[in-house]
Amino acid sequence: MTAIDRALPAMRPVGVRSSPLAAVAPWLLGAAILLALPFVFPSRTGFTIMNAIGINVVFALSYNMLLGQGGMLSFGHAVWFGLGGFAAMHMMVAIDKLALPVPVFLLPLVGFAAGLLAGAVLGWPICRRAGTPFAMITLGIGELIAAAGLMFVTVFGGEEGIKGDRVVGPMLFGLDLGPQGGVYWFIAFWVFAAALAMWAFTRTPLGRLSLAVRDNPDRVPFIGYDPQRVRYLVFMVASGFAGLAGGMAAVNYEILTPQIFGALTSGNVLLMAFIGGLGAFYGPILGAVLIVLMQSMLSDYTEGWQLYVGLLFMGLVMFAPGGLASMVEGGARAVRRGDWRERAPAWASGALAFAVLAAGIVLLVELAFRAHGGGALRLAGLTLRPGDAMGWIIGIALVSLGAGLLRLLTRRGHDGDTARPA
Amino acid sequence: MEVVVFSLLNGLLYGLLLFMLSSGLTLIFSMMGVLNFAHASFYMLGAYLAYAMGGQIGFWPALFLAPVLVGVAGALVERYGLRPVHANGHVAELLFTFGLAYLIEEIVKLFWGKQPVPYRVPDVLSQPIFTLFETTYPAFRVFMMVVALLMFGVLWLLLKRTRAGLMIQAALTHPHMVGHLGHNVPLIFMTVFGIGCALAGLAGVIGGAILVTEPGMAHSLGPIVFVVVVVGGMGSLTGAFVASLLIGMLQTFAIAVGASIGDLLRLVGIPVAPHGELTGITLAQIAPMLPFLLLVLILIFRPRGLMGARET
């Protein structure tokens, strides 16, 4: 693998036309997964988690439109998500109060319109700058809107937020939105539609130009385009899709509070998109699935789940800036080239070393959490108390072993998943 | 009168606390070209370390030891975290510091729990130093102002009047040239980063005792420190000082003035309802928004800030 080869972004180069089947296959697979999921996880918790994943998938994909495809690092993406959500929520209340003949099913479109409009108005000053100033302005706007959210009580409901009822208005496709299972089909439809639309956007001339603006804004004017204008248009579309995700959230949760505008929401979507991988279209989907699963499942077992998310994020920033998707792409490339058999041992040993390291870190973190007042840690017939040295020694040994192994593997130049990209 | 004097004092106090944080950040900012999201987290670390050590060795040794430890931690982060990531560009660096801030907050929660810790100043400093309009003013606040002003003086002299300071200033703007002259630029960067973090740690030791020492303290101050650095201008110590005081005063006075938007409009002759949705909003409610409004306006209309030499 040459250095140039390795530096290539994971996304397929422009102009490479794959066979129609290869282009349609991922979407068919996605649709099949969406159709099969409710039969695999028919429980109430299952639906709750799947609905949350769906909302975050759309949100993270819209974020990647900015950061991954447009090179715009935003710390205020929650603004568009929240504004879209509140617009949809007010519409839902209006459907109930004024008996409007608008189906709740279409509310994400209201969110989309609100996000697009807000992005068009606020995006104009925001997009006048790029790079770090852009990031700072989005941070400022994010904090401004978050503060304003608590101020305008009639619009955002103050601390209590705004409540709505999704079982109003006419039904569409005979779908009853009352039960969680019904909402799942609503979410699934919009996830598929929004993902398809966003993917189609990457294929438009504007989507292509946004890649050019990301990679070389100085050259773009030479081919006759204004980078600032391109950024502004992409920003508007991304805000629209964030608003669409907000509209989905409004229908799913039936309550929104101004907290939605907070830095937590903006930070979360950044984590999801980055951990999943900015270089591939499907990256943020992986990230959203992983983070929501960690949020909902891990939090039952440990107080420290956010610490693990943070560690994962830092590890990826430092050692695999391509995120999870770059590992998938690496594997797919090796399969295409047919040399995956030679690489498999390196991958396996890398994964093993990583597992050892992760086990050590988890052990240390869990012991530290139990140091103030918690009970003992019971693992595989072993009882470890934070007061005893035993657990700490095992933890430190595992961490050093794993880190040492990883270092050894990357030094030897194995091109495994753990290898540092050039 | 009383309100004005106390608002002035509080604004000064808050502004000086902001300056203690932003002085280091502005140097780091002009050095990396990237705002260090984790800067306020080092401030938090300083407060927690001083709390933890204060119980063992007393407040005064902790006042010196905690910033040193934070500075060492900062230097290590620069050497083993930020420097390797630098190769991947500005966005990667920004993401790194963002993740670091997240991680430090979680680690603090891991060791000290989610509730505020009872971090107090020693008795010598908590007694009143003078009485104004029958209200006493605690000595610790005056102590903090003195420390901040001293810091400004020492830093300014260090940067402008010593050889090391000249080297740092040169390395901020022309790192390659300084490297060609035979100076170890990465070492300079590591030192500046460490010192900046140590200053934030010192601010934490003092600020943690005046405000609250809790895991959310970094997040509540962090964004405002950014505002100070951007408004003051990149790499400008004086700019950071002026901007800190400006924002400190702006926020305290907005809170102290009880007027609402409607009151102000009526004052200039526009008759509006006093308690409407929009006109009933008081300046105190707007106060937290003011710094960010300033940030957005400055970035759009005067990108180099009040006293910066270069654009952000």
UniProtKB/TrEMBL annotation, chain A:
UniProt keyword DNA-binding present: no
MF term (GO), any: branched-chain amino acid transmembrane transporter activity
CDD domains assigned: TM_PBP1_LivM_like (cd06581)
Provenance organism: Salinarimonas soli
Leader sequence segment: none
Protein name from the UniProt record: Branched-chain amino acid ABC transporter permease
PANTHER family on file: ABC TRANSPORTER ATP-BINDING PROTEIN (PTHR30482:SF17), HIGH-AFFINITY BRANCHED-CHAIN AMINO ACID TRANSPORT SYSTEM PERMEASE (PTHR30482)
Membrane-spanning ranges: 21-41, 47-66, 78-99, 105-127, 134-156, 182-201, 232-251, 271-293, 305-326, 346-369, 389-409
Transmembrane among keywords: yes
Compartments where located: Cell membrane
Pfam families tied to this protein: BPD_transp_2
Entry GO terms, CC: plasma membrane
Topology in the lipid bilayer: Multi-pass membrane protein
Matches recorded under InterPro entries: ABC_transp_permease, LivM-like
Keywords: Cell membrane, Membrane, Transmembrane, Transmembrane helix
Domain of life: Bacteria
Automatic annotation (TrEMBL), chain B:
Listed CDD domains: TM_PBP1_LivH_like (cd06582)
Molecular function (Gene Ontology), one example: transmembrane transporter activity
Keywords attached to this entry: Amino-acid transport, Cell membrane, Membrane, Transmembrane, Transmembrane helix, Transport
Membrane topology: Multi-pass membrane protein
Main location: membrane
TM regions (residue ranges): 12-37, 57-77, 89-112, 139-159, 187-212, 224-246, 253-272, 278-301
Subcellular location: Cell membrane
A cellular component annotation (GO) from this entry: plasma membrane
Presence of the UniProt keyword Cell membrane in the record: yes
Protein name: Branched-chain amino acid ABC transporter permease
